[in-house]
Amino acid sequence: MSSRQCRKLMEPAYIGQVRTRNRIIKNGTGLFYDTKADRGHMNDTNIACYEALSKGGVGLLVAATAPLIDADVP
C-alpha cells in the first residue's frame, strides 16, 4: 500500500449523514471474550477491547455479541 493510499484511509468519511473520523472500521464480528456466564452480554474484557480500539483510532466500531446457549437448554 502506498503512502498516498494510507493518507486516504485516514481522511474522514460519511455514511449517510454520519461522519467518521477516518475510514478504519471494526466490523461486527464477535471478539470471543464472552462466556456462558455472561449470557451474551458485554463483559469487562469486551468493553476494554472496544475502548482500546476507539483510543487507537478506529473511525467506526460495530459491536457484536450473541448469547452462548447450552445445546440442552430449550
Write a structural description.
The protein is of the alpha+beta class. It is 26% helix and 14% strand. It has helices spanning 3-9, 44-55, and strands at 13-15, 18-20, 25-26, 60-61. The strands form two sheets. The protein has a two-stranded antiparallel sheet with strand order 1-2. The chain has a two-stranded parallel sheet with strand order 3-4. β1 and β2 (18-20) form a beta hairpin. The termini are far apart.
Low-confidence stretches: none
- Share of helical residues: 25-40%
- Assess the beta-strand content as a share of residues: 5-15%
Dominant shape: elongated
Radius of gyration (Å):
16 Å
What is the β-strand count? 4
Largest sheet: 2 strands, antiparallel
Order of helices and strands: HEEEHE
- Taking strands numbered 1, 2, ... along the chain, how are they ordered across the largest sheet? 1-2
The residue-averaged pLDDT reads 80
